[in-house]
Amino acid sequence: MKEADFIAALAALAGDPAARRLRDDAAVIELGGERLILTHDTLVQGVHVREDEDPADIAWKLVAVNLSDLAAKGAEPVGVLIGHMLGNGDERFVEGLRAVLSEFDLPLLGGDTVRAEGRRVWGCTAIGRATSNPVPDRRGAKAGDAVYVTGTLGRAMLGFEAPEGEHGPAYRRPVPRLAEGCALAPIVTAMMDISDGLLLDCWRLAEASGTRIELASEVIPVADPARRAECLRWGDDYELLFTAPSELPLPVEATRIGTVSDAGPALLLDGRALSNADGLGYSH
Amino acid sequence: MKEADFIAALAALAGDPAARRLRDDAAVIELGGERLILTHDTLVQGVHVREDEDPADIAWKLVAVNLSDLAAKGAEPVGVLIGHMLGNGDERFVEGLRAVLSEFDLPLLGGDTVRAEGRRVWGCTAIGRATSNPVPDRRGAKAGDAVYVTGTLGRAMLGFEAPEGEHGPAYRRPVPRLAEGCALAPIVTAMMDISDGLLLDCWRLAEASGTRIELASEVIPVADPARRAECLRWGDDYELLFTAPSELPLPVEATRIGTVSDAGPALLLDGRALSNADGLGYSH
């Protein structure tokens, strides 16, 4: 079974055949008058983190990537559950977990530990409380909206290449845009976090919204302008990508990088149509 | 780091140093006037399921073991999130997932898929709504209480040994005691599900409650009386173990298997003290 078919089958089970990429969308459920946001992400050794990654950084990243999904929903985190495969460096894992929970003032609600040989896998479920109604998703972009991104792209790439350099922490210990997500949620038409590269995630947002997105590459803030193309395709930055009516003032700092227009090729970069086959980012 | 130390460190992060076995306790959070129950369990190929297990049965079990944790809290399930490692038999996995979600009328709220070589790992988070206040846990057993168990123990063991026999489904597709859990929650003093063997889980309940539990082995319902000792130690039955004032009538069918008494050796079987070092069940 192809991955896309599997995800489509899961999405159908989830009651939403249109949710082509189930794993990228946090779930929203109504309960007791609150709207809860739930997200689950898995990290695999050698795939999402390096074989020799410091387990403290793995713990940080495991929680942070889930919080980033909550940020994209404008949710306040309530807590996390962790699935941990026991092994080398568990002391460091606990240290990193303590650090990230403390940084975001978050309780560890529970979890599970397993013992097994071989490649290690970690899971995390984060629960949050929506702060806006409706809760933003990637499907609401409208023709005429402006397209924005927070922060600077490519920092994680540079941090991956030079762990001890200026951008090392951006790769090892990403900081989810929680405050920005809450501030933006009431005014955006669509929002998602950038985990797999700006172009790929732009393409997903455009496709989910049934619109075209036109980007101007030279205005997109990148950490290394000499390597702009890579910065637009590298993942792990965990910035927020969003669309909003172009005349609206923004409550947070962000850069306008393009415009939403009527249906057509989903993504244009400097006027040239791109598709997912062009290697827009990191598919995993 | 020893597993016990790791779990203690996690439990300390979870704000409950007394929660010696974090992974066995579903979390309870208050939100919007509801009490939510959250549980996360991981299945590892070759550890919790056989190398050649039908992926449809893996999907069923993944969801069912989490629902069993909700049952022990007297919770009504709200939905599940799944972490799935792509691989052989994904069609079958989807079929099993469809079957278990349909059986328990449960939405798939979301999840994550990953691609990786090597041993496969699956994670599931289940969310439920408490139906009683307080929510039962394993710490409330009191001297004088009666100890009960639902169903018959050892069925999963026999089903594991003879997959096509009478008890095959008990191993491959366990049925969580959701209705029983909800009915029992208002009257029990302590409750948990039996995932790792009756004796081990009895010992955990006794220890968590700071009491002694005295069991009479001949009254414990087992699927094969000739192999009573094994039936009491084999896991995967997902029955409910609970304590309640001995004079109280029960709202569901269950067997009285012993009595709670004052502190002392935590667990007595036919008058003989047992400790966890005696191989009470399945530690993983």
TrEMBL record, chains A, B:
One of its GO terms (biological process) is thiamine biosynthetic process. Residues 142-245 form the PurM-like C-terminal domain. It comes from the Bacteria. Its EC number is 2.7.4.16. Residues 24-129 form the PurM-like N-terminal domain. InterPro entries: PurM-like_C_dom (IPR010918), PurM-like_C_sf (IPR036676), PurM-like_N (IPR016188), PurM-like_N_sf (IPR036921), ThiL-like (IPR006283). Mg(2+) 2 binds at D41, D69. GO terms for molecular function: ATP binding; magnesium ion binding; thiamine-phosphate kinase activity. HAMAP family: TMP_kinase. Catalyzes the ATP-dependent phosphorylation of thiamine-monophosphate (TMP) to form thiamine-pyrophosphate (TPP), the active form of vitamin B1. This is Thiamine-monophosphate kinase. It comes from Qipengyuania pelagi. The gene is thiL.
